[in-house]
Amino acid sequence: MNVGNIERYRTGDGWRYRVRWSLPNGTRRSKSFRLRKDADAYLRQIEADRMRGLVNDPRGADESLHDYSQRWLDMRRAHLAPRTVELYVSQLNKWILPEFGQLKLGRVTTEQVRAWHGSVGSKASPITAAKCYRLLRTILGTAEEDGLIPRNPCRIKGAGHEKSTERPLLSAAHVAQIAEEIDGRYRALVLVAAWGGLRRGELLALRRRNVNELHGTVTVEGQAQHVAGQGRIVRRTKSDAGLRTVTLPAPVMAELVAHISEYSDADPDAWVFTAEKGGPAREADLSAEWRRAVKACGLTGVRLHDLRHFAGTTAAQLGATTRELQSRLGHGTARAAMIALVA
Predict the structure, then answer these.
(1) Alphabetically, which GO biological process terms does the record hold (predicted)?
(2) Among 13, 54, 91, 282, which is disulfide-ready with 150 (CB 3.0 to 4.6 Å)?
(3) In angstroms, rounded to a whole number, what is the distance separating the alpha carbons of residues 304 and 134?
C-alpha cells in the first residue's frame, strides 16, 4: 500500500529527506529527516498502521503528554467547575505527569499504564488510582479521537472502577451526640445535614431567604466551595437535580430558626451559617471543628458527608421510594441515589 513518498532536497546544512503522505480525508502531511533510513522507517510505520486500520496523524504523537494535557485542560476549563479543575490539576501534577509528562503521546504503552496504576494504588489508595486512571484515559481518549495516536493505551479492564470501603453507619443517637458536642454555630448545620441530606457546599451557600419557616423547608440554589488561588466561590449546583426544596422535620426547623436568630443577619441575602469573626462560615473552620467534635464523641473515621448517608438511609427506612430519595438528595439518577445509601 503506497500512502506517501519521500523526496530529497538540499538545505544549508546538507541533504534532507521529506516524507509526504495523505490522511484518509485528503489532508496532506509532511515530516523531514536528516537520514534517509529514518525517513524510510517513518513511512513504513505509516503504511503498516494504515494496513492495520490505525489511521492517525503521526506528528501528533510527537507532542509530550505534559503539553497535550495542558491544552486538553485549557480547552475544557470554561465548562468545568472550579473545584473540578483544581482536582484535575492536582491529579496531573501529583500522579500523572511525574510518570508520563515527558513521554511523547505515541510512546505511552498499556504496560506502562498498568505498572503506574498499581504503583499509585500502593502509594496512595485504590480509589486515587482509579480516579487518576480515568483522567488519563479521558485525555488519551481525546488524543485518539483527534487522530493523534492510533489507540488509547488505557485499556486495563476494571482499572477505572472505584471500590469504596463501606462507610460507618451513624445512628440517630450519634447525630444527636455530635450536634450537642460541636460548636453552637454549627449545631443546626449538623442537624440539617443529617435530616435534610444537604451537601457541605449546599449548606454553606444557604441564605436566609432560602429558609421558609412557615412551610418548614429549605431551598437549595447553589454550593459554596474553597478553590485554591481563588478563595470562596459560590456557584449554581452541579446539576439541575441539585436545585430542590427539602422539607425538614419540625424540631430541626425550630433549631434552624433559632440558629438564624442568633448567628445570622436580618437581610434576606445574609448567610445562614457564619464565621465567628463575621462573613460566611469557612470550610476549613467547619472541618476542624467537625474533627474535634467527632473525636470528643469517641467516633473514628466519620466524615461530615456521612450525615448525608444517614439522611438517605433514614428516609429509605421510613418508606421513601427511590424517586423520592433521588429528589430529596439532589441526585440526577436513581443509581446515584442508591449508591448514597451504602457508599
Answers:
(1) DNA integration; DNA recombination
(2) 54
(3) 26
